[in-house]
Design brief:
Elements (H helix, E strand, L loop, with lengths): L2 H64 L1 E6 L5 H13 L2 E4 L19 H7 L19 E11 L2 E2 L2 H8 L6 E7 L8 H8 L4 E2 L3 E3 L5 H11 L4
Parallel strand pairs: 1-2, 1-3, 3-5, 5-6, 5-7
Antiparallel strand pairs: 3-4
Length: 228
C-alpha cells in the first residue's frame, strides 16, 4: 500500500472517531436537556395544582366568612311563598317552609266568618299555639342571616310563625322580617316577633302587597347587600 493510501485510511479513522464522539456528546446533551425540560414541566404542573388548591381553600374560607342566608316563611294562600321564593333566588339562600300540622283551608281563612278557624284563634289567644310539622332547620347554626316571611293577620304576623320563632335560638343571627298584605302595613309585627324570640339582631322589615312585581322584590333584596 502506498503512503498516500495509509494516510487516507488514517484520516477516515479519525473522522469516524470524531463523528462518534460528537454523536455521544450531542446525545448526552439532548438527554440532559430533555430531563431538564421534564423537570421544569413537572414543577410548573405542581405550581398550577398548588395554586388551584389554594384558590379552592380561599373560596371555602370566603364562603364561611360571608355566612349563609336562610329564608323562612309561612304562606296561607301562596302569596308569601311566591315572594319568599323570589327573595331566596335573588340571594342564593336556602328555604324553610313553616307548615302547620293542620293546614289552613280556604274556609279556615275566612276572617269574615266569626266561626272560622282564624276568627276563633284571633278571639282566643290560647288557640294560637299552632302545632307545626317541625321547627327544626337542618344546619341551623350555619346561617348568619334569617329572613322571616308571613301574611299579616289582624295587623300582626300570622301566628304559626310565633311557634317557629319561639322554638329557635336566634343569638348571633341577623333577622329580617317581611310580610305580604292586601292592605295592612308591616306594623309592629316584626317587633312583636322579636319579643317572642330568643335573641337575634332584628332589622327593619319590608311589607309587600299580595302580588308584588319581581322588580319590587328585586329592588328590596338588592338594598340588603347580603351578596357582598
Amino acid at each position: 500500500m502506498s503512503r498516500q493510501g495509509i494516510i487516507a485510511i488514517v484520516i477516515v479513522v479519525i473522522l469516524v472517531i470524531i463523528a462518534a464522539v460528537l454523536y455521544f456528546t450531542l446525545g448526552n446533551n439532548n438527554s440532559s436537556l430533555e430531563n431538564e425540560n421534564q423537570t421544569i414541566n413537572n414543577s410548573e404542573e405542581e405550581n398550577v395544582a398548588e395554586t388551584a388548591n389554594n384558590q379552592a381553600e380561599e373560596n371555602v374560607v370566603a364562603e364561611e366568612n360571608n355566612g349563609k342566608v336562610l329564608v323562612v316563611y309561612f304562606s296561607a294562600q301562596n302569596h308569601t311563598e311566591a315572594v319568599a321564593q323570589r327573595i331566596a333566588e335573588n340571594l342564593g339562600a336556602d328555604v324553610f317552609e313553616i307548615t302547620p300540622v293542620e293546614e289552613y283551608t280556604s274556609d279556615d281563612l275566612d276572617w269574615t266568618d266569626s266561626n272560622s278557624r282564624v276568627s276563633r284563634e284571633h278571639d282566643d289567644e290560647s288557640l294560637r299555639n299552632v302545632e307545626l310539622e317541625t321547627t327544626t332547620v337542618e344546619n341551623w347554626d350555619s346561617y348568619d342571616t334569617v329572613l322571616i316571611g308571613y301574611p299579616i293577620w289582624w295587623g300582626i304576623a300570622a301566628w304559626p310563625v310565633d311557634t317557629f320563632v319561639k322554638a329557635n335560638d336566634f343569638n348571633g343571627k341577623t333577622v329580617i322580617p317581611f310580610c305580604t298584605s292586601s292592605s295592612s302595613g308591616l306594623g309592629e309585627s316584626g317587633e312583636l316577633l322579636q319579643e317572642e324570640a330568643n335573641g337575634g339582631n332584628w332589622q327593619e322589615g319590608q311589607r309587600f302587597r299580595s302580588n308584588p312585581s319581581d322588580s319590587d322584590i328585586d329592588e328590596w333584596t338588592q338594598s340588603l347587600n347580603l351578596n357582598n
